[in-house]
């Protein structure tokens, strides 16, 4: 597809005029090359890009990408809500609050443009919160931690590990059915990449590759997509982590 055609496909609206170097580069590089590459689906790239624009607090791009994800039907409202929760874990609740509000606004916008009443907002019950038994949640969290990260679970010797990591992050969020583990990787990797936190970067890049949830080539595409939306300087740490993993296999 041409850059303009791909812009229409991705953003679901006609492309604006290109009058500045920034606008020209956006069209020719971002849509002419990055989104046009075959290594990831458009849906995959949406999850990576949404995490980036939400983390950047970029109001216009957040609106545009949430709207496009819903209008294209690449992501359902349930999947966007799950992505928002997962994003909150790795990038913070204040930023996720903005994303949550945007999802609601754009959900109504899409239906209004179709001349439809919005479908009922998904309802949740206590059963959606997982096991009520606390010991069971910790046990499940320990297992999920190992399955996701490929290393032993941490000890339950601090509120951060016991209540946060084992009970909530891995005892609940990673186990929720709304997104696949691979989808959650596509949200997590951009979030840890922008954090500059060396251990989570190495852990999540390495475990995604080690488990086979993502191939090395897919990881390279994620890093490029991330770099295009959040900066190549930030992308360097993700790239280096992937290269260290590859070197460990030779």
UniProtKB/TrEMBL annotation:
Domain Carboxymuconolactone decarboxylase-like spans what residues?
Answer: 22-98, 161-242
Signal peptide interval: none
Q: A single GO molecular function, which one?
A: peroxiredoxin activity
Task: Locate the transmembrane regions by residue number.
Answer: none
Task: Classify the source by domain of life.
Answer: Bacteria
Q: Which Pfam families match?
A: CMD (PF02627)
Protein name in the entry: Carboxymuconolactone decarboxylase family protein
Organism encoding this protein: Frankia nepalensis
